[in-house]
Amino acid sequence: MTNPVIWLGLSILLLALGLALLVCVSIPALLGLARAARSAEKLFDTLDRELPHTLQAMRNTGQDLSGLADDMTDSVNSARNIVKQVDHSLSDVRQQAHQLSRTTHSVVVGFRAAWRVLTKPTPTRAKRPRKPPVKPTAKPSSKPPASKNPVPKSPPGSKDRTSDRSSDASMTIDD
C-alpha cells in the first residue's frame, strides 16, 4: 500500500462518491427553491396588479381624513364663536335683569312712599295766639336789667344748655 497510484485512485473514487451524494441531496433543495421562486413570482404579480389600487385608495382616504379634519376645525371654531355669543348674550341679560330689578325696586319704594304720604293723616295744628311784641317803656339805663333766674356762666368748651333748651322748644312748637 505504498503505491501512490492506488492512493490517488482511491481518493478520486471518494471524491466522486461525495459529489454524487451532494448532487442527490441538493436536488430536492433546488426543487423547493424553484417552487418558492414561482410562488414569489406569483406574489409579485399580484402585488403589481393590486398595490397601485390600494395605494390610491389609501391616498384618497388620507385626503378625505384631511378634509374632515379641516371641516372639524371649522366646526369647532364656529361652535366656539356661538358659545362666545351666547355667553355675551347671557351677560347682557344679567345686566338687564339687574337694571330691571333696581328700577322695579325704585318704583316700589316710590309707590310705598307715595302711599304713606297719601294715607298719613294730616296733623291739625293748634293755633296759638301770638303775643304782641314787647316795647320797652323804661328809660335805658347804664346797667343791664337783672333777670329773675340768672344763668351761671359755663366754663369754656362746655355746651351751653340754654341754647339746647331753646332748640328743644322750637322743635316742639314746629311738631
Account of the 3D structure:
This protein is mainly alpha-helical. It is built from two helices and no strands. The protein has helices at 4-119, 161-174.
Defining traits:
175 residues, mainly alpha, 2 helices, 74% helix, rod-shaped, disordered C terminus
**Whole-angstrom Rg:** 64 Å
* Beta fraction: under 5%
Please report the number of helical segments: 2
Mean pLDDT over the full residue set: 81
Give the topology:
Elements: H1 4-119, H2 161-174
Quick gist of this model?
This protein has 175 residues and is mainly α.
